[in-house]
Amino acid sequence: MMGARLLGAAVVALCWAAQAVAAFRNVTTRRFEDGYTPLFGERNVLPSGDSRSVRLLLDQYTGSGFISSDLYNHGFFSAKIKLPSDYTAGVVVAFYTSNGDIFEKNHDELDFEFLGNVRGREWKVQTNVYGNGSTSRGREERYLLPFDPTAEAHRYSILWTEETIIFYIDDMPIREVRRSAAMGGDYPSKPMSLYATIWDGSNWATAGGRYKVNYKYAPFVSEFSELALQGCRVDPIEQVPAAGRCAEEEAQLLAGDFAAVTPERRAAMKNFREKFMTYSFCYDSLRYPATFPDCDIVSSEQERFKESGHLKFGGAGRRRHRRTKRRSRIPAVAGAWE
Ligand SMILES: *[C@@H]1O[C@H](CO)[C@@H](O)[C@H](O)[C@H]1NC(C)=O
Ligand SMILES: *[C@@H]1O[C@H](CO)[C@@H](O)[C@H](O)[C@H]1NC(C)=O
């Protein structure tokens, strides 16, 4: 059993190497102190001496997080992330953009969320897109990772432009959301900050809350490096910038290598989604009887995901439909988790 698992992992790793795409050219990284600031659990936010990387810890007292010092009106947000290893059930690491602090009722958000697991089981990754407070319409996708994200750092990036959102893993696009009129306000449109957090998600993260964080294994350490932020910086007071104010930065974003979905990258994305996506809101007709306007229903995918949106693994236990709860990744009072 274990042998089969390891063999499976090795085969997957080979596939990943074969499909890896050319790295982004010209991503300008910045020092932690030049673009970010601790958000909560400050004593568990540990920048390296040269400020080129930062560790976020979760221990029995508090999780931790940092935030970009500015809001961005569209942008490219990127970091290499190494996730905590060993027993990490209930642990959640998130790398996301949001303006929830400013727009409580109609915020926008783009997420990478990493969900820890019991020893020997892989981390899961999910992405999500919210616009203008569309929290009742979670556009959630989940994936397995074709590598061990605790063994070394891998790059995770979010590109958000006027027309397109692209999630990248190791410079390979894994998800693309194109703005359409039908999507309306569900497409994020207000300036957002970048957040990175580690927190206790015991009540839902692993097997729907069955496995809690076990602090015997604390501290849980995540490491962020090669931090990149690009886009039009916006004053929080100004919030929505005057038209045309960000034209130059928007043009720079579109000119970036990370904005070019070449045929090679598109093929890699298709391949990744076929092999590693395990849940898609697009196919979850139990939760969403009406299809979303931004979903391209692929009939071969529909066949595999059935009506629950969950990939069916032969014979593996059936999963119950899980309600998405509104949840906060930032405790109202740092250190207070309940
Ligand atoms: C890399 O990016 C910087 C800043 O955006 C720019 O000034 C420079 O010309 C770029 N270099 C290349 C080779 O594209
Ligand atoms: C966003 O939501 C607010 C109400 O919460 C609404 O007034 C506004 O028109 C919406 N914006 C868009 C672009 O849909």
UniProtKB/TrEMBL annotation:
It comes from the Eukaryota. Residues 1-23 form the signal peptide. GO terms for biological process: cell wall biogenesis; cell wall organization; xyloglucan metabolic process. Belongs to the glycosyl hydrolase 16 family. It comes from Spirodela intermedia. This is Xyloglucan endotransglucosylase/hydrolase. The active site is at 109 (nucleophile), 113 (proton donor). Residues 310-338 are annotated as: Disordered.
